[in-house]
Amino acid sequence: MPEPQEISDDGTEADLVGLPQRTSSGARDPIEEAASLYLERLRAGETVDLDDFVQGYPKLEAELKDFLPLVAAMEDWKSEKELEVVKTPMPEQFDIERLGEFRIIREIARGGMGVVFEAEQESIGRHVAVKLLPWKFGAQSKWSKQFRREARIAARLQHPNIVPVFSFGEQDERFYYVMPIIEGVGFDHLISRLKTGESAVEIEDLLTEIRGPNFGRAAVYHRETPKQKRYFRRNNWVQVAKLATQITGALRFAHKQGTLHRDIKPANLLIDRSGKGWVADFGLALGRERAMSELRGPMAGTLRYMAPEQFEGIVNERTDLYSFGATLFELCTLQPAFDGQSRTELAAHVQRAKIISPRVLNPEIPHDLEAIILKLMKRNPEKRYQNADEVYRDLLRFINKYSASNRGLWSRFKDWF
């Protein structure tokens, strides 16, 4: 049984059906090299003009014009077959007792492209989270490569507010990677609880409700037991801004490492028992090899939180920041910035509808915080925050201003108590 591998930045060579073999000297055939690059660009989501591409290989132009359409057709066929597998519904329950050295305890979460289990790493008695690609694929599959790339990107982002990755493994054509147990819940669950009218949510209570009473009890990574009950209080704007600063710091770090998240939304941001914020799920991330350019390719992300320009395939730091602004909007107002009766209607609203001022929905939101949210969500990217550093600075200014204001208020009224 294959053992989990430590994550590295080593890429895997493209699988090219029918390509010429290497020459006797061991060097790659020039047609193979050209086809590898062509296929790499196709898999990256680019629209590659064949005539423009072959102009870079004048001595091989005729051969490549005959051969590359066959490469593209094989890739399309393989992608269609893999897509049929992915469209197969996940089973209600997975009959999996072990993955490598990890004994599966129970399922704790699932999404469109993965299921997460709580497991025990028996060799050292550590409880971990194991994310499994739920369908069986070969090692050269588009989906298994994407899953491996997700793990590789997350593994190299070592930041106190980003969920790290320990290792990657494969068993019986099932691919998985291993993370620490973060004893927390998504902002989406927090927002849902606040919508019930509670003015304060006890994180421990919410965690028990969502994950069960024994979730992560044997975990040893980042176990911070608060000395007192930790609450998230609605309309505690300094608390909201401190949590937002932690998330912004994580995005700032990822962006400076050349990585875009591309799917920032309430479900992918966590708050743990100690009140700390975490960025999770880099399943749609772009790594340093492509991330910081003005990319155009397939649309990716969650519709409600996507920046308008993402519908044109553009992604950069500002699109991540827009998504975070839409998430912060929802955390502060308890309503999404945009809604619709159908995906088409929702997409139209995201692209063209006017953003409602957060204070219209919740007049308690301070003007300064509203200004930060609205600048994050500017429809014109040039008028938006240009990088996470700018957001971070404005959040710190807000925290300093309102913390000082609250201290002054306390000094005036402390003798009343």
From TrEMBL:
<keyword id="KW-0808">Transferase</keyword>
<protein>
    <submittedName>
        <fullName>Serine/threonine-protein kinase PrkC</fullName>
        <ecNumber>2.7.11.1</ecNumber>
    </submittedName>
</protein>
<dbReference type="GO" id="GO:0004674">
    <property type="term" value="F:protein serine/threonine kinase activity"/>
</dbReference>
<keyword id="KW-0067">ATP-binding</keyword>
<feature type="region of interest" description="Disordered">
    <location>
        <begin position="1"/>
        <end position="30"/>
    </location>
</feature>
<keyword id="KW-0418">Kinase</keyword>
<dbReference type="GO" id="GO:0005524">
    <property type="term" value="F:ATP binding"/>
</dbReference>
<dbReference type="InterPro" id="IPR000719">
    <property type="entry name" value="Prot_kinase_dom"/>
</dbReference>
<keyword id="KW-0547">Nucleotide-binding</keyword>
<dbReference type="Pfam" id="PF00069">
    <property type="entry name" value="Pkinase"/>
</dbReference>
<feature type="compositionally biased region" description="Acidic residues">
    <location>
        <begin position="1"/>
        <end position="13"/>
    </location>
</feature>
<feature type="domain" description="Protein kinase">
    <location>
        <begin position="102"/>
        <end position="396"/>
    </location>
</feature>
<dbReference type="InterPro" id="IPR011009">
    <property type="entry name" value="Kinase-like_dom_sf"/>
</dbReference>
